[in-house]
Amino acid sequence: MRFVSVLWCAILPVCLVGAPKKLEDIEKDIHTNKQKLEEKAKEERKISSRLSSLGNTINARKKQIASLRAQIVFLQKSISQNQSQSQSQEKKLGSLRATLQALEGEKSAIQAYIANIIIKDLSFSLVLDKQSAVSPDDVMLEEAFDLLTKQSQSKILALSDKQKKITDQIGLITHNINEITTLIGTQQNKKEQLQKMINEQNLLNDKLQAELNDYNQKLIQITKEREGLDSILQNLNIIKADRQKELERQRQALLAAQKAQKEKEERQAKENAAASTQQQSQKDNLNIVQVANSYKNVSVIKYTGAKTIAPLEYYTIEQNFGPYFDPVYNLKVFNESITLLSKVPNAVVYNILDGKVVYAKEAPVLKKVVIVEHSNETYTIYSQLDKIAPTVKPGFVVKKGYTIGRVSQRLGLEITQKDKHIDPIEVIAKSK
Question: Above 50 in pLDDT, residue 69?
Fold first, then answer.
């Protein structure tokens, strides 16, 4: 966040009314700010293009996720159908196994019955062989045994054939059940893989969405800074017009004076006016330099003094000082300040060096801001404050350690010296 550029937008009218500026200096300021606006516009277009690309990627991911979900629904339906078919066949298999078991029992009973008949028939034959005469009853009994034996054998053959068919049917159903079970397992594995892919896609989509939100915030920030620059440019153009009117008024007054005064007085008046203009021009140039420095390349100076207290007792560093390279947009950004993240809510903010308050009020984007002037043209800028102490007002002398406000979470700290920036980490003590 560029604290200086945004802050100058808030306090510029105060700075500009201090002394009238030369037209050429105002023109230079306008040209500088126009260049700055063009740079911001390019950066804005670059980030807008990246946002569009991210949006297209997210939409493609969403379509891919929807396709995977449709595949899962299809597989789930197929699995349900196969499971129903498998359960039906398993029920049929159980019935066939029960029938087979009954047939096995019946077959065993018939075989035992036939064996008993054969034994009796054999015994009866032996008895007949030993006897010399066979009665008609014995012959009829033997014939009956033969007939019964043949009937039992025929029944055994029929049962054996039926048993074989049932066994073959059971084998076929068992094979089908195994195939369906294997298919269900394969589909279940595929479903799990698809679900895993959907989870990964969702994570990636969330990541892309977070990145989109983050860079959208950057775009909003750049837009706000650009609006601030537009406001500065507008103020400069108003000052230019006012200055032109003032110069025209002075010119008309000078012409009237030339008619009323003598030649010597006119020359003296011109000399006095020239001297006055030169002095005023020098003063104007100083003011212009102070304002224009906000838009120059960032200059850094090494801090050589002793460490002082930190503005927060318990904190972590969320954003460091200095340049860094944005890997997504290929943008080189310079952080002129640091952002401290308080470890406790509603934390007290302390003044880190003796000085005098020169600014204490709310500023666009930066929430509440306090600027303290110190010796050797050094300034400390505290931003993102949620509260400013009632006693902290412009002109108020503050000692090191004085409570200047409170923050609920983040605090911005920027330090400058003679238009150069100092890394605040070199100045403040570490967190407790």
Answer: yes
